[in-house]
Amino acid sequence: MIKILFFDIDGTLLEFGKKEMHPELIDALNKVKKKGIKIILATGRPPFIVPKFHGIEFDGVLSFNGSYCFTPNELIYKNPLNKKDIQTFVDNAKKLKKAVTLAGINKMGCNFEDEGLKEYFTVAGQHVHVLDEFNDFMKEEIYQMMVATTEDQNELILENTTTLKVARWWDKACDIISCNGGKDIGIQKILDYFNFNKEEAMAFGDGGNDISMLKYVGTGVAMGNAKDDVKAIADYITDSVQEDGIVSALKHFNII
């Protein structure tokens, strides 16, 4: 029996560039909640730009790809990045002439203008700003970094770091998180909090950073618009986000 559902946001709950879910999806999620099933957002976004949707309230958030998890009333788990490796990573990026966005709990910003980063944030309907106090911000708790590099540059960008890894949902840029992070780690922390097991969990996603999540839960659902490597590991492939694939899957599994 499914007791908890995890949802990626961009490309899963929301069409890229959109800010509101389809009314049919909101109605379906409210039916899920009436059955006592928990609904959780699972996103790479920082907490302060996790959207609040009209007509539906989520029971928790897995943000920063699992590195900062909370309910509306309580912090469940946090896993900030290693400060030494942050500096090394920023130095590596400079060698590639790439800016880095640092993201903390309450703010984020980059060290210089970068068209690739600008495009990355635009895809998710967000904006990135240059921080004059970037070096001071590096000394605070940072949970995620973003950089406009491609997969073939992973080794260069991570050179001489020991605690970082790439979480990628787009081919021209990526998120950088802790090696012992990921949406699967965040899911386990939330399952522990609610006293559920993996077999009672279902997750929905479309991007590469959703793979660990879909593989970890009892039932992993890939959206019809998901990348091929995401579909390859999913237990079920539903319709696209444009076609309300979540609603289709909830009906398929007799959850609603």
- Please state the average pLDDT score: 94
CATH structural architecture of the largest domain = 3-Layer(aba) Sandwich
Order of strands across the main sheet: 5-4-3-2-1-11-12-13
Q: Which regions contain 5 or more consecutive residues with pLDDT less than 50?
A: none
In CATH terms, what is the fold-level topology of the largest domain? Rossmann fold
Main sheet specs: 8 strands, mixed
The rough form would be described as globular
Number of DSSP strand runs: 13
Figure out the total of helices: 9
Helix/strand order: EHEEEEHEEHHEHEEHEHEHEH
Structural class: alpha/beta
**Strand portion:** 15-25%
Distance between the termini: 13 Å
Text of the CATH class of the largest domain: Alpha Beta
The proportion of residues forming helix, as a percent range, comes to 25-40%
Task: Compute the number of structural domains.
Answer: 2
Describe how the helices and strands are arranged.
Blueprint: E1 4-7, H1 23-34, E2 38-42, E3 60-63, E4 68-70, E5 75-78, H2 83-95, E6 100-103, E7 108-110, H3 115-123, H4 134-137, E8 144-147, H5 154-157, E9 164-170, E10 173-178, H6 183-194, E11 201-205, H7 211-216, E12 219-222, H8 228-233, E13 236-237, H9 245-252
Parallel strand pairs: 1-2, 1-11, 2-3, 11-12, 12-13
Antiparallel strand pairs: 3-4, 4-5, 6-7, 6-8, 8-10, 9-10
